[in-house]
């Protein structure tokens, strides 16, 4: 009964937001469970290994994609191999070259009963970003349990992007992990950088408040994003006149939102509804000032080697399939 009360409040909040795409960290669902929200399709990665007698799951990440998006994009799970990291792919139905890769992820706290897995976690995530960064747009939303304070998330000797400000001036060890990762990935956070008046704490509870949840995007795509906002759950309950049940637990993480402009492609339709002209803009890069040691640190090296290994595995599988098919054709023809 308590679980159902929690689920109802969560569903009321999610239904009220009316976003095109919603990423959810810590779904706390069992491996077989999902949330059914009218007008959305559900893509998820629930934890498989949880305590036997637990009344709910732990961790877990999910995307809710609105039907209006699915009408225009083919949406599929891109990668859910690593626990608490989920990638989905949106491929435009009117322009095969326009693809958006979205990632929602959750890193358990430093003192979690499952141990400190930050090094392994960021190695996996960085290799995935290297692997998927060739798309039109890449977007990461996350609860990294890292506080970075007023430290900047880019190398000012190489990168030229607007500085961020933070309402949370505290730093912790996981914040250092996060900063190293985000610099290696060439991503920057929207927190404290866009619409600073709409910034707020992303975690608020009786024990304190902090900024540990982020939206991160590639430097080159920063100008595509606007209307960044952090909304406290208490404000959302008031805004949408939601009254929690007596035993309902109010979520302690805020809602982060932003708008993405997808003007990288144009589509003109003829009167019969078919494409008459579709064109994609190719991104160009200025690599003149890239230092020779840009990928010299250990995490970048491990991530690149991981990408190479995945590519080699794919090639080996393809060669094996080609060999089996060749043998089948030979046997069929000789028989």
TrEMBL record:
Domain of life: Eukaryota
Protein name: Endonuclease/exonuclease/phosphatase domain-containing protein
InterPro entries from the UniProt entry: Endo/exonu/phosph_ase_sf (IPR036691)
Gene3D superfamilies linked: Endonuclease/exonuclease/phosphatase
